[in-house]
Amino acid sequence: MSAALIARHEWRRFAAQPFAWTLAAVAVALMAWQFLLALQAFLALAPRLGGLKDAPGITDLVAIPLLRSFSNLLVLLVPLITMRAIAGERRTQSLPLLLAAGIGNARIVVGKYFGAFGYVLAILALIVAMPLALEFGTALDLGRIAAATLGLVLFASALTAIGILCSTWTSQPALAAASAFALSSLLAIIDAGARMQGVDNGGINYLAMPTHIEPFFRGLVASVDAIYFILITVVALALAAHRLDRLRSVAD
Amino acid sequence: MTPAAPILALEKVSRILAGRPVVRGLDLSLRRGEVLGLLGVNGAGKSTTLRMIAGVLAPSQGVVRIDGEDLHEQPGLARRRIGYLPEVPPLHAELTVEEYLDFCARLRALGRGAAAAVAQSIERCGLVDVRRRLIGALSKGFRQRVGLAQAVLHDPELIVLDEPASGLDPVQALRLREIVRGLGADHAVVLSTHVLPDVLACCDRVAILHEGELRHQGVLNATEGDIVLRVGVARAMTATDWRRVPIVVAAEPMDAPTEGRKWRLRLHAGASVPTLAAAIVEHGFGLEELRAEQAALEETFLAIASGGTVQAAA
Question: What mean pLDDT do residues A229-237 have?
Fold first, then answer.
């Protein structure tokens, strides 16, 4: 109940901040531009694709690349959304409002998480709506788009939890954003060297986020990939709650 | 008749921060209807003590009890029973006063009573005219009042105020004192400050902290040579009435101007307390209270701040 209250309050605060609207506008504009470019390229290519056997469709050439591109943007976007969650409260010294309200640390963290995650999901919904709009004029592979969307939701959840965790480490929102970006980027490229060496099935590959998001883009929903993102989310939120507990033990 | 059990009790409370003891073996108690002034120089441990009382910070040793219950064991007690205004009010600048207080009310689990509590708190703290304005656009005085409104809107038994008049102009500070005095009538209030007039104007009891230790507690007794007195009379008085008493140099009201029953009087040098008492009786003002405290309190505070110790007064 308290977590839901905090989450709703976070949404209200997002709605009252020009920064949040600007961020959403920039993200949607960027993706809309990419979408239109991809659509134009597809229309130019379509006559030649018609004669090919098993030719890629608009889902392969427009929808999925757009969603994959958005996953890259999320690595940058989410830290900017989550940076104020706790760090901003500490900077403006408003955190005691929550700490003195007799709410558990876990509920505060979960409330902040859902507040930020709800905002990320709203942007995601706008992005997914772009390729879905093509359904009116052509046949999309809706199953594959659904799988990719589910992958993005899980991916965004993990990034949001990492952002909330980083936001508990400092009272400087910019530093929180930078550390969340660094940590998310590390998880995104941690197996890049191994892949260059031809290793694509080792432990290090399992740690990397692209290993688990790519199957969703191919239309494969595997529980191992979903569990990976859920695990990151839960661990990051647990660490954030623990950090909040530590904040009660030191003057802040 | 036995006195009511204390709402707040600190038992041998200590707090270590960064390896340094900030509060040491603190014992304090507070009952409903009392306003306790926590005095001390900067770094004396006042804010840390208040954070522990509010449940924001856990004690390293000792127990903070709210109505007999251990606050650290049952943090939920803080939700309804404690109102806390930190030194910097915990505000959300992007919201209006009403939106913010509505959130605070729901945070304190007021449920359906939230709207009524918000309205009452807005009225009580003089925020009616700014209720729909963004908090970020308010003056410091109003923001302080919004902070106070969030601390009292759930009608807590214990109100914890950390330097509530800090940075306010004299008019705003006076208004805030009136609000705190009003709250003290039916709540237990702990007020931290290093401003002596705030304590004199608002508090029933004083505790002086120095280097994390309680060095003095209680109401200071009059001492010989005091020339500033706190006087309570039965009749509603004005400053003009006091001019009829020749030994009174200045008279300052300590309650609401319309009541005129509690005054701070400055006497001519050499005037004695019995002389004043006799004059008040002679004029038929109805003497109810007479004590000298400012000079004594100031003396005690300065003695402690400079490293001395004063025995606790009864």
Answer: 97
